[in-house]
Each structure stands twice: as structure tokens, then as C-alpha cells.
Amino acid sequence: MAFNDEYFMKMALAEATQALEKDEVPVGCVVVSQNRIIAKAHNLTETLNDVTAHAEMQAITSAADFIGGKYLHNCTLYVTLEPCVMCAGALNWSQISKVVIGARDEQRGFINKNLYLHPKTEIVLGILENECSQIVKEFFRSKR
Amino acid sequence: MAFNDEYFMKMALAEATQALEKDEVPVGCVVVSQNRIIAKAHNLTETLNDVTAHAEMQAITSAADFIGGKYLHNCTLYVTLEPCVMCAGALNWSQISKVVIGARDEQRGFINKNLYLHPKTEIVLGILENECSQIVKEFFRSKR
């Protein structure tokens, strides 16, 4: 299987599925450097009682720990749902090279807040958008 | 000594001083509930090699752990420097009751990005503004 955006987004979706199994809002992500996954995480805000425990926040900390430095240069984050303001702020500080987003989050995502990531950061939208959107929609439908 | 905003901002400044002693950007904060400090933290981004290790992020996690729930209702954060986008996003998720800010951060702070905290959150600006501003200014002056 080719190491392309769809491949790594599937890995992020597998993380989202792990969140779902814990009754967490199903968002997952992986950080990739040179075709290698160096960090992966899923949302754990309920499990940890901690609003900061979004998938991206954990993955940024974990990737930096792996690298041994705080900047995520030459790294790509694959995340199933558009990052919120908090996570976009953290990604900005990290100077990550690329962020690949599955589904948009029109209400909570950073894009409609007119926020920007670091000038060095490339953004790709819409990879496996349907699958990434569907898992979140079904979660919230089941909660009603 | 009265338990007023100046009192708790002094405690936040003491945390900032601890950051300074570690050669970190000197920002500190405390979380107060019913006149009791339930969490305190200072910036540790260099020490931990982690861009997410801002004082506020650590204090939010720590206060939620103390409370045993993720929402910081009936809590006040005293922070020496205006929170950045990441920390403002986290404070928004936390639904904290009140945020008291020492010095403004015109460039990196959330206010000039037209971001808002939670509708429930009261914001107070300018408590011990000079001291809070001075410690950061002196740090960056020493780095030039």
C-alpha cells in the first residue's frame, strides 16, 4: 500500500474509532515524519477529565518528545476533524510543516474564526472527508 | 492581607519568577476557587520541549484534576500575561468563571485576534500590569 494521504488518514480514523469505543467525541490523529508515524492519539477529554486532552494536543506533545525538540519541522499531522482554536494555536506554536484535515468543523474549527496556522504550514482539506465526518455525526446522533 | 485580585496576581507573579529562573519566558498563573489556590503553574515550554506547556494549559489540567471534573465553574485564573490563542481556546472549553490578566500581549494575545472566551467568563484586565509587563520585557531585553 502506498504511503499517501489516504493511507495516513485511515490510521487517524483508526484512532478516532478507539475514541468512539471509549464514548469520547471520535477524533483521531497521527503525526508522520518521513513516512513514519511518530505519534498517534485520540480524544480523551472525558476519560481524563481534561478539556486540553484533544487528540492533536496529545500528539504534538508526543511527537516533540519523540523528536527531542519542540518544533515539528518536517512533520505532517493527519487529523480526522478540523482543529479547534486551542489545537490550531498549539499547531501554530509547533511550526509543523503540513496539516491534513479530514472533515471540516464549521462551528468549532479554526478556519471560520479567521485564524491562521504558522506561515510555514501547508494545509490540505477533505481527505476521506465522508468517513471522517460520518463517525462524528453518528456519535452525536446516538447522544440525542 | 486581603484576598483580592492583587494578592492572587502576586502569587501568579511568583510563578513567573520561577519560570524566569529556568530561563523560560516568564509567565505564571494560579487558579483560585473560594479564595483558595487550587492550581499554580509557570511556563515550561523549553524545559519540557513542548509548545503546549504554557502556564495556563498546565494550570487548567491541574485544576480539573483537583476538582475531579473538566469544567472550571466557580474558578478564577490569574495570569501575568494575556493568554495566547491556544490558551484562550483551552479556557473557552473549560467554561472558567473569571480570567484576570496582568499585562496585555498585543501581538500574541487572543484579544486582538477577535477571539472570545466562554460567554460565562468574566474578564478583568490590568491587575499589577506594570510588574507583569516588566518581567517579560526584561527577559526579552536580556536575550538580545
TrEMBL record, chains A, B:
Its cofactor is Zn(2+). The keyword Zinc applies. Pfam families: dCMP_cyt_deam_1. Residues 3-113 form the CMP/dCMP-type deaminase domain. PROSITE patterns: CYT_DCMP_DEAMINASES_1 (PS00903), CYT_DCMP_DEAMINASES_2 (PS51747). The keyword Membrane does not apply. It catalyses: adenosine(34) in tRNA + H2O + H(+) = inosine(34) in tRNA + NH4(+). Zn(2+) binds at residues 54, 84, 87. It is an enzyme of class 3 (hydrolase). SUPFAM superfamilies: Cytidine deaminase-like (SSF53927). Keywords: Hydrolase, Metal-binding, tRNA processing, Zinc. This is tRNA-specific adenosine deaminase. It comes from Kaistella treverensis. The gene is tadA.
